[in-house]
Fold this sequence. Notes:
This protein has about 400 residues and is α/β, with parallel strands linked by helices. About 45% of the residues lie in helices and about 15% in strands. The longest helix has 29 residues, at about 375-400.
Amino acid sequence: MKMSELPAMDRRVKLSQLGEFAKRLSVMTDDLRDQILAPRPRKTPPVFTIGELTEMCGVDRQKINYLATKGGGDLPSGQVQGTGRARIFTLAEARTWVQRVSDIYQTGVVDGDRPRRGRVLITANFKGGSCKTTTTMCIAQGLTLRGRKVLVIDLDPQASLSELCGLYAEKDVTWEDTVLPFIYDPTIVGGLASKVQTTYWDGLDVIPSHNYLHDAEFHLPTAQKENPGYEFWSVLRRGIEPVLAQYDYIILDTAPSLSYMTLNGLMAADAMVMPLVPESLDFISSVSFWSLFSEVAAGFVEHELDKTYDFISVLLSKVDYNTTSSAPVVRSWAQRAYGDWLSTTEVPASSVMSNGALAFSTVFDLSRSDGVAKTLARVKQPLMDYCKWIDDQFVAQWRVEA
């Protein structure tokens, strides 16, 4: 039989076949997760050298050494390495040093005395692959390294942020662990506070997601239709308010769509971050986001539901600085479109960063001793600078409130 006479492949797919296909994929991904995240505990925080501690605290190495070795001191002494001249500190110890030694303004939340209101950030973007979830996690981690206590809430049914926090989205999390029970019944005992889980990262808590969170997209419009007085856009905001007393920041990660849950997040947030990869399709997608959101916002304003964001920040991510890159052209578009909204900080692209994503990790998860840590420093430092910029915006407000 000639090659041209081979029978054509039958590519037809019935809906009834998809269930078995999904089961097979689920088994495969479970195996992959086991390989990537094993052994338990699946994620561990980094350790910090004295050099890193001096950078975080803004004090010289000699002072760190003196305070760490001074008898009777109330600062963690770390663990002695090698000949005794080097020390490493756990994440919890490093955060304690930052809170007690650095000149970074502290809010008092670490001592349980919360005189100020925490702030709510949201990351939003329609385009998949925009680094939205990774950026959310990096901002959360970076803010904790400034001594802050942070809660992340995963509003994306894909639950990628939950996995970055070290949770199997389908094994460690049920729909009852998410915000969904509160969406169904805002009067449940404990509210959103009862859904908070600690993570492997000191100072960072999470309310995880699950694929059943899609159900909120049916419940919220149905409840609005059945009860004209129901405010579908304010459910999450009412749930967050009581929890703000326990955190400096609550950061919301959203699905890449203008869903009902995304709208809840946008109406609950004090400020917004949009990660943007400087590629033409990503830029066009960002324009679509603002076009659709503005139409929805106009409806809110007509009903006297206007609100003010403390800032909206567009962060260029995965920036390719090669001479053949389209980044310079798209950056110029973004500058014209977003003006002062466009951050002066840019996060460069890194092939090592992509490999880290496959391991459910971020640049902050690596210790300096790891082989690729130096390579990723060019990615980590801009993220730290961006976290400082975010923090500075709200520290100015906290000082006024004090």
